């Protein structure tokens, strides 16, 4: 029995110039040109679209879920965020409306 569906191509479309390409689905086709034609008929007919990409699914390389540790940060960069700093008690007391002056 021969394969009648062809290869799987993932389809991305762009709604207007300057927008990012967004994944919209996949098509089965014997070659990239036919995949582009089928993607146009399937995904660009009813939606606003100015550009299409078709990518062979076999060309996509993804990380394994078991390798989640590769997304851990290598260095501590908490200094880039406000939560990375400790607030002195005097500043917190002032923000809470308390007096820090001992003359009260």
How does CATH name the architecture of the largest domain? Roll
Unreliable parts: none
Total beta strands: 3
The amount of beta strand, in percent, is 15-25%
Mean pLDDT: 82
Shape: elongated
Report the end-to-end length measured between terminal Cα atoms: 92 Å
Helix percentage range: 10-25%
Give the quaternary arrangement of the chains.
single chain
CATH superfamily of the largest domain: Phenylacetic acid degradation B
Element-by-element helix/strand order: EEHEH
Number of domains: 2
Structure description:
- The protein is an alpha+beta fold.
- The chain has 2 domains: 7-59, Roll (Ubiquitin-like (UB roll)), CATH 3.10.20.520; 71-95, no CATH class.
- The protein contains 2 helices and 3 strands, in the order E-E-H-E-H.
- The chain has helices at residues 32-43, 89-95, and strands spanning 7-14, 22-29, 51-56.
- Strands 2-1-3 form a 3-stranded antiparallel sheet, with helices on one face.
- Strand 1 and strand 2 form a beta hairpin.
- It is elongated and about 75 Å long.
- It starts with 6 loop residues before the first strand and ends in a 9-residue tail after the last helix.
- The mean pLDDT is 82.
